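ok new one. same drill as before - structure tokens go in, u give me an amino acid for every spot. 201 of them this time. try not to just spam alanines like last time pls lmao
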């Protein structure tokens, strides 16, 4: 059975351990009361005494309907989760000597990703002795950023990390991620990896 963590988060009535509590609520006497008096106040209203700030001195308790209180908390959490923006990062891989046809093919997909609101992490992978062409890889990535300047801005300039030289682009318009941004790329698209970055509050 799935545990309801939200219900476990709040102590109610006789489960509250403090000797006295600060009582808040609508249309009730507010102030600091001995715990038993506070519980009796809640019972008189046909409601529950809910500990909402256990670390306060004294702990703060609300007189309310417990089931309704939990429902409202769950609803608030859902709304906050819905508002959180998930940032999708698409990765595009180049070789140090990528030809124009392959370059344009990947550029087209990068434009689509940025239009959908996804970030683009493009990198040149240097295999074996191809690391000798790292300057060529940097030129390629700067050209890539320049060709995308209408849609994306450079978040990170070309930087060598191990065998990869990476550049990061973020959408200029800050558009929300479209559902298509989270789908697999159509058959024949360049090798793309998808990462989801935790939202900022």
């Amino acid at each position: 059975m799935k545990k309801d963590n939200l219900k476990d988060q709040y102590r109610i009535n006789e489960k509250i351990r403090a000797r006295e509590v600060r009582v808040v609520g609508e249309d009730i006497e507010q102030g600091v009361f001995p715990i038993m008096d506070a519980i009796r106040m809640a019972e008189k209203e046909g409601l529950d005494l809910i500990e909402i700030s256990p670390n306060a001195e004294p702990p703060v308790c609300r007189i309310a309907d417990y089931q309704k209180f939990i429902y409202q908390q769950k609803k608030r959490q859902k709304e906050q989760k819905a508002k959180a923006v998930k940032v999708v990062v698409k990765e595009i891989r180049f070789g140090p000597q990528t030809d124009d046809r392959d370059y344009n093919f990947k550029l087209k997909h990068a434009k689509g990703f940025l239009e959908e609101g996804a970030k683009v992490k493009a990198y040149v992978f240097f295999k074996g002795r191809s690391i000798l062409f790292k300057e060529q890889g940097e030129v390629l990535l700067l050209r890539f950023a320049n060709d995308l300047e209408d849609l994306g801005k450079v978040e990170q300039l070309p930087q060598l990390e191990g065998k990869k030289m990476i550049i990061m682009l973020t959408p200029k318009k800050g558009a929300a991620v479209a559902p298509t941004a989270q789908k697999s790329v159509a058959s024949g698209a360049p090798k793309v990896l998808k990462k989801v970055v935790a939202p900022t509050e």
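DSSP finds five helices and nine strands in the chain. and btw Residues 174-201 have pLDDT under 50 and may be disordered.
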